[in-house]
Amino acid sequence: MNTQPRNAPRRLNLLLLGGTGFVGSRLVARLAAQGHGVRVLSRNREKHRELGILPGVSVYSANIYDRATLVRYLRGSDAVINLVGILNETGSAKFRKAHVDLTATLVAACRESGARRIHQMSSLRAGEGQSMYLVTRGEAERVVRASGLQWTIYRPSVIFGVGDGLVTRFARLLGMLPVLPLARPHAHLAPVAVEDVVEAMMRAIMAGPSSVGQVYELFGPETLELVRIVRMVAAAAGLRRWVLPLPDALGAVQARIGELLPGKPISLDNFRSLALDSVGQKNGLSMLGIVPRAFSSELPCLLHGRHGRTALLDAARKLGGLAAEDRARLS
Ligand SMILES: NC(=O)c1ccc[n+]([C@@H]2O[C@H](COP(=O)([O-])OP(=O)(O)OC[C@H]3O[C@@H](n4cnc5c(N)ncnc54)[C@H](OP(=O)(O)O)[C@@H]3O)[C@@H](O)[C@H]2O)c1
Question: Where along the chain do its domains lie?
Fold first, then answer.
């Protein structure tokens, strides 16, 4: 007997790939809070035990590149959400493998298992330019569009939030360096809040047929040059730093060196992707009825909120520490 109240949203069984990351962990928490059944496949579930304690959420260690494994986990799923993505190639993690091959295997596994619905994370400017990140994102989108499945594609600009790769990363670097030489300083970005990205996905997942075949470009209300963003981060963190815009010839040299450093603060592929402005045209957030948060108004609480401050101090500690005066200001 169906015990759900008549108007309650349907409880979905969802499979997530990449559900342990910056975006995914927040999406999993939202889905769990709404009572959906969530299975998350990870390369190592032991690192993500905290997700597994959420009601209705199970995290499994699995080889997501293996079709038979995917078929097994897809059985009984109403939809699959693919959030896997890499910004840099390291070891066995390659752009084509993580973006295109994985998506093709997932599509084949969906067909074999009978799963019909796929939500695919991509990126603004996917398929354009010289960066292999963007090129392979575009190839993966084509695989999804040609799949015959009911698909939805999400294309965010750079995403900000506690623990992100933008504010947190630049706050770390600014904490370490008195002068920050910056490649591609005039690249335009339209930072979008992670909460808005997750809200967009929640609405599209629950929307039923109206979100099928849609490409949602997800970008914030402010378009800012990278150099402006970095200076805003420095100012918000109370760090007096000199941000030095590099011409492209020097930026390319910096990117080549950055590739060799631990953690790859910048790579040649990042440098290539920044040749294209990460700005959208068709506003996916407003299509979904979401009023986006502005980067400039969220930034102070991102850095000075409890989590932001802790994240910044932890990061700085790991990377060799802040100058004494900065430490005093932040603690
Ligand atoms: N953050 C942004 O600013 C931004 C902007 C545009 C688009 N996106 C896209 O949005 C998605 C989510 O971003 P995010 O910031 O949440 O990323 P993230 O924190 O790096 O998480 C990505 C997840 O993918 C899995 N993963 C990473 N490398 C993998 C590999 N080589 N093979 C298989 N799985 C791998 C990881 O799960 P396990 O370790 O558990 O296996 C990880 O939790 C990505 O596709 C990203 O490219 C992000």
Answer: 13-156, 160-190+222-277+294-331
pLDDT tens per residue across span 28-51: 999 999 999 999 999 999 999 999
For residue 160, which atom of ligand 1 is closest to its CA? 3
- pLDDT, residue 326, reads 40
Residue nearest to ligand 1 atom 28, measured at CA: 86
**20 CA distance to ligand 1 centroid (A)?**
8
Give dist(CA 196, CA 286) in Å, integer: 11
Residues with CB under 6 A from ligand 1: 18, 20-24, 42-43, 48, 64, 83-86, 93, 98, 121, 123, 156, 158-159, 165
For the domain covering 13-156, report its CATH number: 3.40.50.720
pLDDT of residue 56: 96
Tens digits of residue pLDDT in 176-193: 999 999 999 999 999 999
